[in-house]
Every structure is written in C-alpha cells, then in structure tokens.
Amino acid sequence: MSDAGEQTGSALGVLRQFVRRRSAVETCEMCARELAGVHQHLLDPVNRKLICACDACSILFSGQGQAKYKRVPRRIRYLADFRMTDSQWDGLMMPINMAFFFRSTPQNRVIALYPSPAGATESLLSFETWDEIVMDNPVLLDMEADVEALLVNRIGHARGFAGPEYYLAPIDECFKLVGLIRSRWQGLSGGTEVWAEIGQFFDSLKSRSPKVRDVCHA
Are 92 and 131 in contact, with CB atoms under 8 Å apart? Predict the structure, then answer.
C-alpha cells in the first residue's frame, strides 16, 4: 500500500473508532453500570468537570461534606417575577445577553460565565451590582453552591424570545447550552440552525420548570 493509502486507511480507522465510541451506550463513571439517556451527573467543583453517574452512585454524594464530587440537582425553576433592570445587567459587564452565575466554593466567590463559540468564557463580575440583584431577588440565596446557577437569557425579540428569562438551573444544563452553541455556531451570527436550537433549549427548560413567583421577593 502507498503512503497515501496508508494515511487514508489510518484516518478511516480513527473515524470508525470515534463513531463506535459515540454510538456506544453511556456508563456510570463510578461503577461502569449502563445508564439511561437521561441520568445523573456529579461535579468536581475544583476542575469544573462533570461526570455521568447512576442513581445508586450519585446518591452517595448528596450531602454537603468534603467529598471530591457533588451531586447535580435535577430541579429547574423558572423565575417568573425576577427583577433585573437594564442598568443592573449592564453593570454585570456581560459582552452578550446570555450568561450564568454560580457560587464557587473552591474560589469562594460568584463566577460569571457566558457561552461562546469557543466554549464557556469567564467575565469579570461587578460584585456591587451582583449584591444589589441578590437583595432584589432573595431566591438567589437558595442557590446551591457549585451545582446550581442563575441562567439569564436576555437575547430578546430579535431572536424570537418574548422577553428576558431567568432560571435557577442545574449546572449541567448550563454547560449543555455551552456545548450546543460551541458545536453548532457558524460564521459571525451563528446561523439560523443554532438559534432555532437555542430556542428549543429554553422551551424545554421552561416546560420542565414550575414558575417561582412570590419566593423571589419574600
């Protein structure tokens, strides 16, 4: 076989291995048990790494102890009466109108990330503005550190959204959004396909979430 033929054969071999890995059934990264399509996740807060886990293994990490991993909750809460002014949003210094915020225990501060074609990108956070937002929305005090986030969607009418949307969401859902944008984005504007999928993502999030109203301002 020629060198070109050997290179082609090698490339096809790698591609076949990749396809087999992608099509294989997911397994628990703790005990190797086969997992359903919808399953639990654990988070390593230090490295911000998510791993797939079965119910039996994930429940071992449900407490707030000093274990390496924390169980990511499944609850999603749509904050129907969340209060945030345009000036407060501008004060958070986000370069785009979509971001998520969570309390990091390893860094002992609130982290602000926004999705981009390059992945999750950290933004500098104005803590004075953040503290003001928390005072207006005490529900944020109930946000579980590391594994829950305030997910903000202020993309607006230009992309088919009726208005700003705010969620307390599991951190894996936030990184799911990041992965969607990173893998589907095309050109400068992203393309119609990615914006349709972003819309479907938020529709799904809202359909799985009870509305939280009075709790926001208790």
Answer: no
